Amino acid sequence: MENQKLQLMGYTKEVASMRAEQISIFLENKAGRLAEVTAILRDANVNIRALSLADTTDFGILRLIVNNNELAESVLKEQGFTVGKTNVLAVEVDDAPGGLNNVLDPLTAQGVNVEYMYAFANPHGKNAIMIFRFDNLDKAISILKERSINVIKGEDVYNL
Asked: With contact defined as beta carbons under 8 Å apart, do 117 and 130 qualify?
């Protein structure tokens, strides 16, 4: 559904399909809150594919790639959690010295900033997969395509 919205906004089907949707959950920084979220998702049969947890003294932001965003968002909101959605890119990175720089260098050269990133388990391949949030997703997609760097389609990310 997200890809259909992006296509209506003028994005090509190919560019729209390269985006993955991440959910972000805002958590109080106290014992048990992370386990509460993961239990809610477990009970709804939602599989967590990748995650990142950032915290401050009072709260944290849990960023997730899951196999069913709509269900995850719904069950978490039902339990009173604040949930947001963000478009990110899943990029295949050579699992070798300098592999990450092969992705970052051309983006940096053209002024694209990485707002945050985190790793994604890749049980099917020899390369790493990184989830990136860029300040200019469209420009990042264009640069990565020019360099023949594999951006994994959103629909494929949820099923890895």
From this structure: yes
